[in-house]
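TL;DR need C-alpha cells for one chain.
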Amino acid sequence: MRRCLVGVAALCVSLCTAAPATAGAYAEVFGSDGTLLSHPGGSSYVYPADGSGVRIASAVARPGSIVLKNVSILSGRVQVARLVVPRHGIGGARIEGLTIDGKAGPTEPNTIVPLGQSSYLVVLQQAVTPGPDGRDLGLVGLRVYVDDSSSGIAPGTQLLIGLARSAPARAGKRVDASSAVMGFDHPFVPPVGLSGTGILDALPTLALDGSLGSQAVLIAERYLGTPYVWGGASPQAGFDCSGLVTFVYAQLGISLTHYSGAQYHEGRPVSIDQLRPGDLVFFHPGATGPGHVGIYIGGGQFIQAPQTGDVVKISNLFSPRYQRGYVGAVRPY
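>> reply
TL;DR here they are.
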C-alpha cells in the first residue's frame, strides 16, 4: 500500500454546483467511485427502475424547505412517512414515521444506524453539502451507504435523500478528478472479547459527553461522502487517510502530522478494548510505521478515507477487509 505522505500537493476536486433547491433536486445516488448515477427529474422518484434502492411518492419544494412523503429505501427496509429538510440550518427539520426493519428508528440528528455488515444509515446528518467549494454546512435528511449486494444495489453506492440545497446534476458526472492508486486490503482477527456483529444497535448521537474525541467524530461525520484524494487534507481538495485526521483535529486546536506513520506516535497508546470515540486506529504495519489510519466512532465502527476511487465513509473494524492488518490505536488529546 502506498503511504499517506507529507507535502503532497493537493489535487483539485470537482464538486456539484450549489443552487436553490427544486423539486427535481431532492435526492442523489452516487456510485462507489463518486460518479453521480441518478437524481430526480420530477415530483416523484424511483431508483433503479424497480424502486429497490429508493422510492419517493412525492416531493414539494417550499420557500424554506423541501418535504418528502412516503419514502422507501432498500426495498422497504427503511421507510419514512414524512421528511422535512430546511434549506438553512437544522431548525425545523423533521422526520416522521421512520422505521428500520420494521422497528421505530431514531430521529435525533447525526445518529448513525448500522444496517448489517458495513452498510449504515445517518439520520438528519449535518454535513458539508455539494457546493462551489464544498464548504457549505447543510443537512442531508437520510444518507444510506450500501456495502453489500443483497439489496440488489451495488456495494459502495450512496443514497442521499433530502437535499434542500443540492442542485440537479448530469448523471454520470464524477465528483472528483483524483488519480494515483492506493490499495488497502489487509485482514484482521478480532481479539478475544470483541467481535464483529451483524445488525448493531444505533450509535447514539455523538459528542453528548463533550469530550474532544466525540467532537472530532462529529466533525469527521460532516465529511462523509467527500472523495478520496491522495495528499488531500481539506474539503476543497478531498482527503486521504491521514489528511482527514489532520484536518479534523486541527479544528479542535490539535496539530497532527499529515502522515500516518507519524500520527501513530502523536498520542497515548490505547488497547483495542479501551477504544473511545475520536481515538485513531491504525492498519498495515510497515518499516516506518502504519500505512493507514481512521477515526474510531464507537460500536466497532470507524470513519476513514480509504483509497482512490472511494469516499470518506464508515467501516467496520472487524470486517474481513480489515483483518490481520490492525496495528493499534492512540488517543491524540
